[in-house]
Inverse folding.
């Protein structure tokens, strides 16, 4: 193993935080509160593949003009989300949707706001060719990496040969993304038996979340999402509303429906909604409290305003902040890339 490779793998191990339980499927640390990561049969985990994926995720040379990487829109310091309403791609082009957090995407059943990608491997290829994102072709991306001699060793260690293909690029990036996890939050420690992990205000907010407000109808389970699609009315009052899931399925019932995101570390992933139109958690609670925005396909769960009191809104926001966990904070862009 080369010195450069040893340095990078050492960094990957150092990035694993404490307070972990271990998943049963491989030696990837899984934070308290999450289940084991189930790895695809045709893309099993290896640390070499994950580290290659980290390099590729942050390498701007995958874009057509060498200015944009996956990490340009999924920013580590913001829980791998986009801190602006819309992302900026090559030639300073502005996208049309907010880049969601990548935390716990290992547990996702589909990818993107509209679910157009079934797997992380499928998802990894699409921004490369997105005209407002990385603006490259798959062939162009592969050609670029083949010309970078330093990557040959990485592909050899990850896949057994130094052949660079778009499928291998996608598999490596997806492997890395499945290691971006968040758990061991105050909420998780409370559920595990530490009754001092939540404040009184957060405990009251938790009861509101699961009982009166019934937020868990959509934000359920360990990852606080059903992985399903709902129309909450966001953007439906605009002159040209985003069709959401309908653009993929052409099912009229899914017009304006978007995937329910995880609430893990939601306090760090502002702005909110698929169009980044809500700036704070307080704005989000107010939006749901009044029942969303009426439109031809508003989800029935949204039609009845919550009518929370001012104190209840504060308590609900406090609970949402208790979902900020650990497992991703030490992941950083590489200090150097293969040459």
């Amino acid at each position: 193993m080369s010195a450069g490779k040893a340095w990078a793998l050492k960094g990957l191990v150092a990035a694993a935080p404490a307070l972990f339980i271990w998943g049963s499927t491989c030696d990837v640390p899984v934070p308290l509160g999450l289940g084991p990561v189930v790895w695809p049969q045709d893309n099993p985990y290896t640390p070499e593949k994950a580290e290659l994926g980290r390099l590729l995720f942050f390498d701007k040379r995958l874009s057509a003009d060498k200015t944009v990487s996956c990490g340009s829109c999924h920013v580590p310091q913001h829980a791998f989300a986009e801190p602006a309403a819309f992302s900026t791609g090559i030639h300073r082009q502005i996208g049309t949707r907010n880049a969601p957090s990548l935390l716990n995407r290992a547990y996702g059943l589909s990818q993107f706001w509209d679910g157009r990608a079934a797997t992380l491997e499928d998802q990894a290829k699409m921004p490369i060719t997105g005209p407002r994102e990385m603006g490259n072709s798959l062939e162009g991306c592969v050609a670029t990496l083949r010309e970078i001699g330093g990557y040959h060793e990485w592909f050899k260690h990850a896949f057994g040969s130094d052949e660079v293909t778009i499928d291998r690029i996608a598999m490596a990036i997806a492997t890395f993304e499945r290691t971006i996890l968040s758990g061991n939050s105050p909420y998780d420690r409370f559920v595990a038996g530490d009754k001092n992990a939540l404040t009184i205000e957060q405990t009251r907010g938790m009861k509101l979340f699961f009982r009166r407000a019934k937020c868990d109808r959509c934000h359920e389970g360990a990852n606080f999402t059903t992985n399903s699609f709902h129309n909450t009315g966001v953007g439906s009052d605009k002159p040209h509303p985003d069709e959401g899931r309908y653009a993929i399925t052409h099912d009229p019932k899914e017009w304006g429906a978007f995937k329910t995101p995880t609430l893990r570390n939601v306090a760090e992933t502002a702005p909110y909604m698929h169009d980044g139109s809500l700036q704070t958690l307080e704005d989000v609670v107010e939006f749901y409290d009044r029942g969303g925005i009426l439109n031809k396909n508003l989800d029935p769960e949204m039609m009845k305003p919550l009518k929370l009191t001012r104190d209840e809104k504060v308590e609900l926001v406090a609970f949402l902040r208790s979902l900020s966990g650990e497992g991703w904070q030490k992941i950083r862009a590489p200090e150097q890339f293969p040459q």
Remarks:
- The longest helix spans residues 200-212.
- The mean pLDDT is 92.
- The beta strands are 20-22, 29-31, 229-230, 258-259.
